[in-house]
Amino acid sequence: MEQQGLTMKQKVGYAFGAIPAAILLYLFYLYYIEFFYDDLKLMPFLFIIGQGIFATINAVNDPLMGQLSDKTNREKWGGRRIPFIKYGAPIWAITYALTWFPWSYDNQILIFLQFVTFTCAYDTMMTLVILCWMALLPEMTSDIQERNQVNFIVGILGLVGLLPFIILAPIYKSAGLLSFQIFNIVVAIISATCFIIVARVSKERPEFQHEEVFPIGKSLKETLKMKSFRFFVLYNFFVTLNSSIGLSYLFAYVFILGGDFVSAFILYFLIFILVGYSSNFFCIKLAPKFGMWNITIRFGLILVALRIIFFFIVLNPALENLIWLGLVLMTIFGGHGVFNTNYLYLCMDEDEINQGIRREGMFLGTNALITKPAQSLGPIIATVIFTYFSFVQDAPVQSAQAILGIKILFFLVPAFSSLIGLLFFYFYPLHGERLEGLKKELEDLHVKKRMKLNTLSNE
C-alpha cells in the first residue's frame, strides 16, 4: 500500500500559502528596521536593547508554539495544523498592520515600547501560522524530489504574489506615512484572506492524527539528541543571520548600488526573482544526479569566494558598478538555498523512524529557538558596524568611511557567516547511502501506519 503522489491541485493549494507568507514576511523585514531605526530615529542603544528582547521572545515562543500544535486535540479541533492557520492568520495580519502607526515621533521611550511590542506580537503570531503551514508538507509527502518541487512552487507563487507589492511598497512609502498605512491595511486583509483559503483547501493526513506526542521536556530533549538536527540548525543559524542583513538593509545598500532607491530596489528584486529562481530550478534538476548535500557544499564555497573577491573589487570607487555583476553571480550560486527546508524535513523523517511518531511542530519550533536569535544578531552587527563607520541615519549622502562599512556588511559579513555555516553543514549525515536507507525505512513505516489505520477503521 504505497502512498500516492500529490496532485497538482494539492501542490498548488498548499503553495498558495506562500503568497501571504511572502508578503507579510518580506514587507515587515524590509521596512521594520528602516521605520524604527531610520524614520523614527530610535537611539542605537535602545534599538540594540529592543533587538535583544525581540531575540529572546523570538526564540522562546517557537518551541512552545510547536508543542502547542503537536499536542492539539485533533478530534475537538479537526486537526493540529489547519485550525491555527485559519484563526491565527487574521490576528497575525492585524499585528502587522498596526506596526506602522507610530505611538510617538519624538518620545524615545514610546518609540522603544512600540518597537518591542509589535516586533514580539508580530513574530509570535507569525511563528504559529508559518510553523503550522510548514508542518503540513512533510506529512503530505515523504518523497524528497516531490518536496523540492512543492518548495519550488512555493517560491514561484510567493514571488508572483509578492511582486506587485514589491513595486508598490516603495511608492506608497515615499508618498507619506498615511499612504503607507493604508497600503499595509490592504496587505493585511489580502494576507488573511489567502490563509483562510489555504485552510479550506488543505487536508491533514489521517494516519498522523492519532499519534501521541511526548511532554515538552522530553520532546525537546529527543529533538536535540539528533546529530543530523544539531548540525542542520547550526548551519541554518548562519543562513538566517545572512538573511537578516539582506533585504532589511536595502535602504543602506542603495548607497553602493547606485541610483535612486526605487530603481535600485526594482533591479535588485528582478535579479533575485529571475536569476535566483532559475538557479533554484537548476539545482533541483541537478539534485537526483549529484545529491543535495554535494551541491550545497560546492555552490556554498563558490559563493563565499565570490563575496570576498567582489569586496576587494568594489573597494575601488571606479569599479563600484561591478557590484551588479557580483550580485548576479552570487545569486546564481545561492540557488542551493532551495534545499534548506528539505534538510530539516529529513531530520523529521529520521525522528519518525526512531520514535514512531511525527513531531514537525517541535522540530520547527526548536529550529527557530536556535536560529531565530540570528534575526536579531544580524541587525545588531549591522548597527555596530554603522555606528563605528559613522553611518548617518536618514541622510541623502554618506561619507567614504560609512560607504566602507556598508560594503563590509554587504560582502564580508555574509561571506564569513556562510563559511562558518558550511563547516557545520559538512557534518550533516543525511546524504548518500544513509539517505537512501532512510527513504526505504520511512516508506515501510508509513505502509504499516496506513494498514493499522485501515484496520482500526474496519473494526
Q: What percent of residues adopt helix (DSSP H or I)? A: over 70%
Helix/strand class: mainly alpha
Looking at how many chains there are and whether they match, the oligomeric state comes to single chain
Number of domains: 1
Cα separation of the termini: 19 Å
Main beta sheet, described? none
Report on the structure:
This protein has one domain (8-458): MFS general substrate transporter like domains (Growth Hormone, Chain: A). Helix 6 (108-140) packs antiparallel against helix 16. Helix content is 79%, strand content 0%. The chain has helices spanning 8-15, 18-39, 44-70, 74-77, 82-98, 108-140, 144-174, 177-201, 216-224, 227-244, 250-257, 261-290, 292-314, 323-332, 340-355, 360-371, 373-388, 400-425, 433-458. The protein starts with 7 loop residues before the first helix and ends with a helix. The model has no long low-confidence stretch (mean pLDDT 87). It has 459 residues and is an all-alpha fold. It is built from 19 helices and no strands.
List keywords for this structure.
single chain, 459 residues, mainly alpha, Growth Hormone, Chain: A, 19 helices
